[in-house]
Amino acid sequence: MEDLPLNDLDAFTAIARERSFRAAARKRGVSASSLSDSLRRLEERVGVRLLNRTTRSVTPTEAGERLLERLAPALGEVSEALQQLDTFRDSPSGTLRLNVPTIAVRLFLPDLANRFLKRYPQISLEIVGEDSFVNVLAAGYDAGIRYDERLERDMIAVPIGPRRQRYVTAAAPDYLARRGVPKHPRDLLEHDCVRHRFLSGTALTWEFERGDETLMITPKGPIIANAIDMEVSAAVAGLGIIRTFEEVVSPAIETGALTPILEEWVSEFSGPFLYYAGRKHLPPALRAFVDFVKGQRVKGG
């Protein structure tokens, strides 16, 4: 076993994480057939099936799950050791993988990422925007962006993006003319609402605050999506009331396409954080990004 090719182990890890040969191949910049060959060699060498493959799915076997659990941190250590060689270069290089919520991609990350890459042209930035809140380390990412309630205790958090944000409620003038204007959050139970659902399947509960009073509402309505543009479009079309980040609906409010309601029930909360494992030696690309974020005054921050 001591002569197992590292590339074959890395290929297995990539396929197991992505649950897809094609997705893993795209991420590695290789062909799906080469990954298939690597997996075949590895399974022949260890004498155990590691992945169950059908035409529709790829899932780890029990043996594969156990190997992945032990192998992923070890390969991470190898990758980090190799990346430490970048400290001998004139400037940091390598690939930095970030997992972030889609709202960060929409509101502030593009400008920040563009300025970072202009300063460090030898770094490659890989960003995955999703709202499933995966374990970034187990999924192979270097760092993630999360809000307060999503931070893990063993991670280091660095403020990034706007430091205070607000949730506002709004509806199209046509909808309000037809259905009336809600005076209290409880009135929303009698209205159509445009709802957001995370990729995990969890639907977003609406939380309202006024002074010391907090109220949780589970709205109903004709549409539920995990795409904010679709949600705003539905609200503008008069299909229901929307409650989301102020920055998202501000353009429609400014043009009159949406009208703010329940304004005394606007919820304000802390902005997002860049978070990563508190390792003694960070990969050079991650260290450069952390230092860059700390030194920036991001718009709205």
Automatic annotation (TrEMBL):
Pfam families the record matches: HTH_1, LysR_substrate
Tagged with keyword Metal-binding: no
GO molecular function, one term: DNA-binding transcription factor activity
Keywords: DNA-binding, Transcription, Transcription regulation
HTH lysR-type domain residues: 4-61
Coiled-coil features, chain-numbered ranges: none
Keyword Transcription regulation listed: yes
Domain of life: Bacteria
Classification via SUPFAM superfamilies: Periplasmic binding protein-like II, Winged helix' DNA-binding domain
Entry-linked PROSITE patterns: HTH_LYSR
General function of this protein: Transcriptional regulator of the ttuABCDE tartrate utilization operon.
Entry's family note: Belongs to the LysR transcriptional regulatory family.
PANTHER family according to UniProt: HTH-TYPE TRANSCRIPTIONAL ACTIVATOR TTDR-RELATED, HTH-TYPE TRANSCRIPTIONAL REGULATOR
Protein name (database record): HTH-type transcriptional regulator TtuA
Organism whose genome encodes this protein: Rhizobium grahamii CCGE 502
